[in-house]
């Protein structure tokens, strides 16, 4: 083997692991790694904030299914990455954050920008490690990629002391390759038991969580649903796992991001096959209502996830793809394809009769109208990115999705500011795709400096801002306390002219105040973004809609509890 700088070996590992783009900010304590990067095929995008870099790597990872990479120097670079690590951990996103560090001999002396980032990051990573020897460098990175991808995916942090980075190691890239990742398969007898339960149910549904998308198991999901004629619901993280215009699509249940008819369908079901879903509290609401009268089969790759929120009637440990394939093989072995029955017809009836209006012509613009125009204008292959707040809730309620990895949302951690850098990461991963970031006015301001990065590197995408000129979700939470901690953001009273802000970054922007102007504005933004190779903003001024996600609406799942006659009706065919 040849002896080479150990950071060159690290870069060779990145290349062989399929990483073509990394995000970061160079600094003194990480320069040996950057010196190796400049002679590689890996593109480096210099961001304006390390948190923005983590979110960009996160978006790249969600769009590709590969491991995203973010790099920073020592001290505050690493602490700035913690929010991004937490976000990736919460949403099961494979990512590696690399930090520089002071020399090992100085770590106990409170050296400049020396912080124990490994201990800080440990609670929000699958593995946090400091490189101790140059000879370990390629192997620590190989293991980091394996851990990030294995089981329930997640983030890893690798800390690189400057003296270790300057070392060398024996390495031959021709003798090295990515480490194998286990794909756990279910026990045949538990698969048979699950099919027994499905066959015995009269109103079953399949609940597809984000794990179905992560496992690239959407084809298996659809084949199983169509063979058995079992309706499919999705969680917020599972949007795109099943096409929402399919006759078997049964909506989305929940307390915030939900459809009315999805809640009704769920409450009429008698069996739930949950695949790759973790039963988050914004999905389940009141567990007594959620569980009542239903049998649950829970499939998850992470054994400790089963029974964490409530005990299912049957737990299946396994990767979503072989589990769904196994269920399909077992079902096919028992009978031919089923015909749609009364339960499927009932799902269609609920969809027709309980869909919410979205065709309002009111001024100020009602948020549902914005999403109607988004649904009508953008194609099925468009990738949407959204974050947290009322606009995310409206998006979950009204936006339609058809394909996996086309609806990306920071579901569990919900960091404001996630959308712009994540959209940039998605577009860099898939330059051929239309990318649209749906943002709130306040969230946009958290990391809007990353617009400058997209402009610098000519990364085009459309930003649609839902602006109600206040922190809607926070204001609604404050109301019972009779307080208002400066959450109103009118222009001139703490608000920002977002059109001028975008123009300051050299990017086009337009404000829309009339519903009839929405479609033209979306067409203009799409054309401008493609022509100028820049992010383009459409700021939509909407009404201040009360109780969109809090207060009485938290009881929505109870509101649609079925009447007794629906539970006792004859569903046999």
Automatic annotation (TrEMBL):
GO molecular function: acetolactate synthase activity; flavin adenine dinucleotide binding; ligase activity; magnesium ion binding; tartronate-semialdehyde synthase activity; thiamine pyrophosphate binding
Domain Thiamine pyrophosphate enzyme N-terminal TPP-binding residue range list: 8-119
All copies of domain Thiamine pyrophosphate enzyme central, residue ranges: 191-327
Segments forming a coiled coil: none
GO biological process, one term: isoleucine biosynthetic process
Catalytic activities: 2 pyruvate + H(+) = (2S)-2-acetolactate + CO2
Enzyme Commission code: 4.1.1.47
Keyword Heme: no
Domain of life: Bacteria
A GO cellular-component term linked to this record: acetolactate synthase complex
Lyase among keywords: yes
EC top class, as a word: lyase
UniProt keyword terms in alphabetical order: Ligase, Lyase, Thiamine pyrophosphate
Residue ranges constituting the Thiamine pyrophosphate enzyme TPP-binding domain according to the UniProt record: 388-540
Entry's family note: Belongs to the TPP enzyme family.
NCBIfam families on file: PRK11269.1 (NF008431)
Designated name of the protein: Glyoxylate carboligase
